[in-house]
Amino acid sequence: MPPSFSTPYVNALQTFYNTVGKSYNNMTSKVHAGGPERLIAAAGPAISPGSSILDLATGTGKVALLAAQKVGPSGHILGIDISSTFVDIAREEAAKQGVASRVEFLHRDVTRLDLPAEKYAPRWADAVTCGSAIMMFPEPKKMLGVLATEVLKPGGVLVADAWGPVVPAKVFLDVAVPRGFVPTMDPRWLSEADGMFERLFEGTEFDLVRVEREGESEARFDVGTEEKIEALWKSMSVDQTWLNFGLEKLDEGTVLEIKKAWIEELKKYTNDEGSVVAKVGQWIAVAALKE
Ligand SMILES: C[S@@+](CC[C@H](N)C(=O)[O-])C[C@H]1O[C@@H](n2cnc3c(N)ncnc32)[C@H](O)[C@@H]1O
Fold this sequence. Notes:
Residues 48-160 form the Methyltransferase domain. InterPro entries: Methyltranfer_dom (IPR025714), SAM-dependent_MTases_sf (IPR029063). The chain is built from eleven helices and seven strands. The chain has helices spanning 8-20, 23-29, 35-42, 62-71, 84-96, 140-151, 167-176, 193-201, 226-239, 241-244, 252-267, and strands at 52-56, 76-81, 103-107, 125-130, 152-164, 206-222, 275-289. The longest helix is centred in the last third of the chain and has 16 residues, at 252-267. It is globular.
């Protein structure tokens, strides 16, 4: 039995990512290409031979496993995630790459780290990495407080990224929120993540050092036929739990109204070939824990 996490939302996310499982790497390989490498490079010397790193929401371990190469045999990486399927995939991959002795993956919720104290004494990490997940965390400022007091060494570095604009998802929130949908994610994470990072670190124990926009590539969503529109709508309204959690609380009529408005609004972004095309890029935030 997987452990029950902090809220129904986190439990639902866990179910979603367990279902995504092995297809995650394929789904993201094109649009997130080069992202983990840039995230790690942004941390500078905080991730170098001998460093200790916490990778929050590690997923299939993409960032953690690259970091393991960089820190070498004298370094240590801990990756945590709510999805037990992802944790299993990440462990298998660490064994395949021969880095299992320096990487540990644990099934944990970022809001309840609860790390074994004998191994992770307070303030053990040189850096914290977080790829494409910070916008999903309930109470992210509280989480920063935990990183500041329990995880990072003074002056330690936090690097996190967000990808966008994710046009169909952004349009979904644009039309759903005024019609009564209460999102778990601030819609601005999908289109103005630089400003969101600034807000996130305000009044915390961290100084935001910089936010960079990197590696734009083209994301294409085919909306040329009714079937394609239906499939994309299903993805927005049913599959993507990080986006649509809570939609089931609205009545059928309201959901239908949201769907109509979403289709109408999406037309504004659709080209002559029946595709919504967006230049999706990576916003990387680098923050340092105050000394
Ligand atoms: C888009 S994936 C990113 C995975 C990985 N960091 C990467 O860059 O490929 C988001 C990840 O966040 C994890 N996640 C979401 N909320 C979480 C939470 N509260 N605690 C731990 N992991 C969480 C999900 O299980 C999922 O693996």
